[in-house]
Amino acid sequence: MRPLVLAIALVLAGCPKPPGPVPLGGEWPATAGDYDDTTAAWTRRGQIRADYQQVAEVFATFKSPAWRSAWVARRASRGKLSDASRAELLEAERADDAEAWEVELVLTTWDKRENDLDRGDRSVWRVTLVDADGKELAPIEIERDRRPNNIIRSEFPGFGDFSEAYIARFPKEARVLGPGVDKIGLRLSSTRGGIELWWASR
To answer: Could you state, in order of their start, the residue ranges of all structural domains in the chain?
Structure first.
């Protein structure tokens, strides 16, 4: 292989694969997908760097009906749940989905004091969801995911030794998933910089 071609191939191999399209229609799937594949499809990653060091890294997993369905299937399989228990768990996920749009945020910051998404207006970060019409939505709440670290890590691979996990909830009345939705986003910003993450249907 020629040196130039080899160099280009190495550069391309080192570049992260851009996220693929996801269905934004909001339908519940008839059959649950593979959990790992579904989580990868609905997760976006972003970083802020300044002065040659990483300020923050975030993994955002949108809890779409497809993701919730895959999570229930995984939980039922691993927990050896009965059909009745699985149906009950799925109903609970449907109820949660009906109340708010949810995003799991796994945040790692260089300065641990800045990992404070659950402090509301006192947080150094501003988090908004961008709906299908480009409108920014403030969260109803952002709470820390207080489950054991090993559980969070098993569900969200981006969770590392210095990460904190949060659940962000946004108002359901906004047009985020549904017919005709082509693109939605999440913005995370502070005085150090900002991150934009996008989910698109094509």
So the answer is: 19-200
